[in-house]
Amino acid sequence: MRTLVLWDIDHTLLAVGPLTRTIYESAFTTVTGRTLAAHGVPSFAGRTDRAIITETLLMHGIETSEPLLQRLCHEFATGFGARIQEIREHGRVLPGAREALKALANRTDVVQSVLTGNMRPIAISKLAAFSLDEYVDFEVGAYGLDHGERAPLVRLAQLRAAEKYGEPFDEHSTVLVGDTPHDVRAGHHGGARVVAVATGASDEATLRQVGAELVLPDLSDTPTVITSILGTASEPS
Hints:
This protein has 10 helices and 7 strands. It has helices at residues 19-32, 49-59, 66-81, 84-90, 97-105, 120-129, 151-165, 181-190, 204-209, 222-234; strands at 3-7, 14-15, 92-93, 110-114, 174-178, 193-197, 214-216. The strands form 2 sheets. A 5-stranded parallel beta sheet has the order 4-1-5-6-7, sandwiched between helices. The chain has a two-stranded antiparallel sheet with strand order 2-3. Strand 6 (193-197), helix 9 and strand 7 (214-216) form a beta-alpha-beta unit. Helix 1 (19-32) packs across helix 3, helix 3 (66-81) packs parallel to helix 6 (120-129) and helix 7 packs across helix 8. The chain starts with a strand and ends with a helix.
């Protein structure tokens, strides 16, 4: 049985700095004709794009509709796709991320993808900017427009992987790697085991407090990362 490894992207594998906010502001103004208020954006950390955009519209007193949401998403994704070079210049791959992705991609007992709050085009743009896209199967990932909450994304990724690879994936054979309490809760409620990394805003103590089975300071020790992910997957809860 293979292990389905689902990676969060932002602050787990890479960081793009303030560029996300800049692109988001531009997309919001283009679509709504309004300037994004200084305090008119909810926290991005661990949230899905669907939830962030919906809440942003509500915070600005704009009635949310699916067509409006889709226009904003399209503009946001287009902005990222057009600024790959800026992402490369202002962002960075976090220590050990490339090595961990490559090591898992070389294994026949692993299916590797992403579980991210980013919509799929943005997830691809971010990873492609740093040539990390070759290591993951985007077809079986789950993304920020698939649902407003992260937990249901776990099951969706499992179903997509099962359909493509012809074998089931459950809580014993799925590992979610992320950096926020939202990632930890998504794994627990969605049906995956969790390896948390303290490379974002949440420290190791916080991640343990919300129930992460394993917490690593970062991804820099590749053998430990691989052992943590695959060892965790092999042990029934």
